[in-house]
Amino acid sequence: MRVLLASLILAAASTSPLTAQDIDCSDPGNLPQQGMNFCALKEFEAEDRQLNTTWKRVFGELKARDAELGEPFRGMPDALLNAQRSWIAFRDGHCETEGFKYRGGSIEPLIVHSCRATLTRQRTQQLNSLLEE
Q1: Is residue 56 within 8 Å of residue 49, measured between CB atoms?
Q2: In the chain, N or C: fewer CB atoms in 10 Å?
Q3: Which residues contact 115 (CB under 8 A, 6 or more apart)?
Q4: Whether the predicted pLDDT of 128 surpasses 70
Q5: pTM exceeding 0.90
C-alpha cells in the first residue's frame, strides 16, 4: 500500500499543469478542455485587436467625411459611437447568456470566448461595410 501511495504521489508531482507554451492552437480539437478554452480566448483577443484597428480607421474616416458635410447631414460618427458602445454591451451580455447553458462546467469559457470571437468578427465586417461605396 505504501509503495502504491508513493508511486501516486511521485506521478502527481511529475505532472505539471498545462502552460501556454504547451498549447498548439493550430489543432484545438486535440487539446484538453483547458487548452481549448485558452485557444478560444486567444482567438477572441485576436479578433478584438482587429476590431480596434478597424474601428480607428473607420471612425477616423467617418469623422473626416462628417467635417465636410453641412447641417443636417452631420452626426454619423456620434451615432456610430453610441451604436458601438451598445454593441459591446450586447456582445458581452449575449455571450454570457450563451455560457449560462454550461454554467460551472469546464466548457463554459470556450462557449463564451468563441461567441465573443464570432460576434467581434461580424462587427468588424459591419464596420468595414460602412466605408464601402
Answers
A1: no
A2: C
A3: 94, 95, 98, 99
A4: yes
A5: no
